[in-house]
Amino acid sequence: MKNSLSTLLGKYRGLVLAIGLFLAIDAGVALVNIQASRQIEADTHQVNAAGLLRTHAQQLTKGLLTLERDRAAGNLMQSSLAEIAQARLGFNDAAQSLQNGLGEAARRSLPIGDSELREAAGEALAQVVQTWGPIDREVEPLVGNAELDDEALSIAVQKAVTRNNRLTQQADALAGAIEAMARDKAASIRQVQAAAVGLAFLNFVAIVLVFIGRLSRSDRETTAAREETGRILGSVREGLFLLSQDGTVARQRSASLDALLGARLQPGSRFDAFLAQSLPAETVETARDYIDLLFNQRMKEGLLRQLNPLSEAALLSASGLSASHLSFQFDQIREDGKVVALLVSVSDISQTIRLTAELAGAEARAAHEVSLLLGVLEHDPRTVSAFLERACESLQTVNDELQAFQPGMASSSPLVNRIARIVHGLKGEAGALGCASLAQATHLFEDVLSPLRHRPGLSGEDLIPVAVGLNDLLAEVRKIEAVIERVRRFTEQAPPLDGLVDNPLAAALKRIEQFASKVAHDLDKAVRLETRLEGVTSLPDHLQEAADLALPQLVRNAIAHGIELPAERLRQGKPGIGLVRVEIKHKAGGKLVISVHDDGRGLTPAAVREVIRTRDLLPAETVEAMSDHQVVAQIFSPGFTSLTAANEHAGRGDGLAVVREVVHRLDGRLKIKSVPHSHTRFILQFEAA
After folding, report:
1. Element (H, E) at 680
2. All domains of the chain in start order, with CATH
3. Where is pLDDT greater, at 532 or 535?
4. Pairing relation of β-strands 527-534 and 578-587?
5. Partners of residue 673 on adjacent β-strands
6. Is 598 in a helix, a strand, or coil?
């Protein structure tokens, strides 16, 4: 600040002094005008007061004459006495105001105007007061006196009448003297203003004559500096430009900037408008906030560099066909400790980004293979191989049905529903086996199927995305098969792990336990899984599919739809941790019963009806005619779900449809029992032999 002030008083000292003189003249004139206006206002008040002296004197004389007449006629005299008192008080107040005003003007007056006029006004006021004195003395006893003395009244009337004309003339003379004072002050002010205008004009002429040469020299120096700056900016390889605090781009820029950005960033344009052409709105808003932070005087740019949202920005080229990756770096330009602008450096980092992406891709592929390997190692490779074999068969079935599809077939919707159930079943098994990549791939494939499920007529073009997704699923299965093959080489002769390999039921329950933990974690729920095997150590081979395919769907359905969030359970007086219980037991008559119980929100026919109506799954008249039992059975229909948005674990409407299909394929029976806000139990019953 001190150096800046020294420069100002050195290089521009003469100009500063000239401007200071001009401001001083203006300030002086302003002060004179303010004070003079106050005095003129006071003089106006005094002129009015002088007029009031004449008015009150005449009012007093009139009141005395009226009082004398009323007394002689025996009339009421209160109004006359009130008029006399009012006139006397008004005269005295006006006289006192004039005395105070003239005295104040004599003490605080600016040295303008004629002092003799002020003295004349004072003498005129003194004469008025002198003439008024005898009248006031005679009238004073009359005011407020209920019993008047005729002689005192007569003397007061005589005094007022004989002195009224003289008093009126003196008041007129006083008003004229005050008006003369005001005119004299106005003339003096005009003279002062004329002198100030003359001085200001001379000051302006001096500025033009003295400083025009200096300004000319400064222009020449500025031109030379601009040429040197242009040479520098033309030689650097980075794109450089200045960004002002209002977000506009300055005129000076490096020659490389146009090559990097094209002609889209024009001088005077807004930088955020340029960014909006090629970046998402969220990124543009973040960049705007970041730039505002850089202009904050208290923020250090070193602390903000790591927050730069434009350090790696993918901008479309001017043609809009390809994208280039540019890095925008911002440096604060400070003057007197304040950030006045930002120096923006632009460099092309496309090659660096490509190399980084290739490296990240290689790391992702390696991580994917490691993830597959770790997922497989948690389970018996032979179990995973059996699953992959079933997956390939199922996907091949889907492929065959797609190839046999004819556009316009009336059965297009059932076709999509069958594909959805097959894929959803694969997703459940993949999740239970820890094949996360395959589970994710099937979830994405379901996103492709969802918009086709209720489309009335499908064309071959509609099924192209389905075919592409099917190929992706098959590719993912092949990857897992390759990993399994590698693992098998090392585990073929190894003993079973924890005895699970020789017991497929125990292995399936172990997988379901891990799967339930993952589903609960993903859905932010707290769940405890219990398994009860009453006299059952293994399942017949033909029923193992129920454990491998149906049980994961039922457990996931219980967690996703049945178990409430912990906070909701606590509000209902339930434990924060939900319970899902899997029971497998033999029943009389050679029956095998598998049940999945949860202590969640339960089912109500009314809620199911509402879902069917809301989603137009069935005609309204059909829904009304259905019994509660028939309505609840609709939860096993393809596409039925109570969720408004699908996630990885629920919302497609295929989980329970897969369960029903498995039960039907195994010639079993399916029951459901539910109590609202208490529990739901799914019961699967099969012939054990």
Report:
1. strand 679-687
2. 2-210 (1.20.1420), 239-348 (3.30.450.20), 357-491 (1.20.120.160), 504-687 (3.30.565.10)
3. 532
4. parallel
5. 681
6. strand
